[in-house]
Specification:
Layout (H helix, E strand, L loop, with lengths): L2 E5 L2 E3 L5 E8 L8 E6 L6 E6 L6 E3 L7 E6 L4 E6 L8 E6 L9 E5 L2
Parallel strand pairs: 2-10
Antiparallel strand pairs: 1-3, 3-8, 4-5, 4-9, 5-6, 7-8, 9-10
């Protein structure tokens, strides 16, 4: 079955960095676009970044442009999210997905001093 296993979250101070990883299985990873979403307490889940099946095209929501970088390793069925210059408003549970294939358990990112 389709699975997404996110990791790499944690507590970080404002201005710090984290690298999230997502191991995917149960579908042909190299043929699907991938995305990272996040959900903050009391808010709806929002799309943060997406990457094309071959990694050549990426897109970001405005609030993370210039700070976050999405990438993928098709040979490892893994997608990454490098997050730099983190802000308190980035605090959320982060999820990866291939559009329409469901969700993993997410990984908590907390940005606080």
């Amino acid at each position: 079955q389709v699975q997404f296993v996110e990791s790499g979250g944690g507590l970080v101070q404002p201005g710090g960095s984290l690298r999230l990883s997502c191991a995917a299985s149960g579908f042909l990873f190299s043929s699907r676009a991938m995305a990272w979403y996040r959900q903050a307490p009391g808010k709806e889940r929002e799309l943060v970044a997406q990457i094309s099946y071959n990694g050549r095209s990426t897109d970001y929501t405005g609030s993370v442009k210039g700070r976050f970088t999405i990438s993928r390793a098709n040979a490892e069925n893994t997608v990454y999210l490098q997050m730099n210059n983190l802000k308190p408003e980035d605090t959320a549970v982060y999820y990866c997905t291939a559009f329409g294939l469901g969700w993993g358990q997410g990984t908590q990112v907390t940005v606080s001093s």
